[in-house]
Specification:
Strand content: 25-35%
Largest sheet: 9 strands, mixed
Low-confidence stretches: none
Strand order of the largest sheet: 5-6-4-3-7-1-8-11-10
Bound molecules: NADP nicotinamide-adenine-dinucleotide phosphate
Shape: globular
Structural class: alpha/beta
Distance between the termini: 15 Å
Number of strands: 11
Mean pLDDT: 96
Length: 216
């Protein structure tokens, strides 16, 4: 069976987004600083059809790993974005007509909606049966040889971490203090005992720490 992987950028005080997330400011106040390391890389920019970026750096190599070998993604509805209830002309995600996933994406929500097929092989499925059901669907879609990515946001990642379902946790720790927002870390008492540090890489203004699950 494939692994469940999460690759998440966090502030030094453990937030994945700043306070005041909105359609105008999806990362919340100050949240963009968490992703500056990735925005600079060729790998991230290429995934999002943007020109330029640094190639061959530590950050570029780490960014390039993100969706390799991933056959399905699970994400929270706040990460997908949009207003609920969905309305007549519902939100189609942040990523344009051809999102970078190119595989099925299972969006956790309490607001049912038919699947949304995009260009390039990405289909968003809206799952109202909870995180376990979404993960089961994602595993099925990914098949035995490919991994499932827990894309975020914080509430979603916390749920899978608390349930001990994330096999590989890549944290990209930016040296910013957000003070408030969508909190990933803290209040997860079993996390420390459940993982070992597998690697630590120093990037440009960011530290990449890979934790691998040891328990269960
Ligand atoms: N730093 C990173 O690497 C990274 C990665 C991904 C995302 N992000 C950021 O993370 C932020 C989103 O994180 P988030 O923690 O706010 O949200 P989220 O995990 O994306 O979504 C919250 C989920 O919880 C559900 N929910 C809310 N209240 C619930 C309840 N009472 N019972 C059951 N389900 C409930 C929501 O469904 P409903 O549809 O019912 O509301 C939604 O699926 C965004 O700013 C995004 O940009 C950061």
């Amino acid at each position: 069976m494939g692994r469940v992987r999460a690759s998440l950028s966090v502030s030094a005080d453990g937030y994945m987004a700043g306070p005041g997330q909105s359609v105008e400011d999806p990362l919340g106040v100050g949240g963009r600083a968490l992703h500056e390391w990735a925005f600079r890389t060729r790998a991230f920019r290429g995934l999002h059809d943007l020109d330029g970026g640094d190639a061959g750096t530590v950050d570029d190599r780490v960014a390039a790993e993100h969706l390799v070998g991933v056959g399905a993604t699970v994400m929270g509805r706040h990460m997908f974005g949009g207003e609920v209830p969905w309305g007549d002309d519902p939100w189609r995600g942040w990523w344009g007509d051809d999102p970078p996933y190119h595989h099925p994406v299972y969006v956790l929500t309490r607001h049912a909606r038919p699947p949304l097929a995009m260009r390039g092989g990405t289909t968003f499925h809206f799952v109202t049966d909870g995180p376990e059901a979404a993960l089961a669907m994602a595993r099925e879609a990914a098949g035995p040889d490919r991994d499932v990515s827990v894309g975020g946001g914080a509430r979603t990642a916390r749920w899978y971490l608390a349930a001990g379902l994330v096999d590989v946790l890549d944290l990209h720790v930016a040296p910013v203090l957000l003070g408030d927002g969508a909190r990933l870390l803290g209040g997860l008492p079993d996390l420390a005992a459940g993982y070992r540090v597998d690697r630590v890489l120093g990037g440009e203004g960011v530290m990449h720490v890979r934790y691998v699950r040891t328990a269960g």
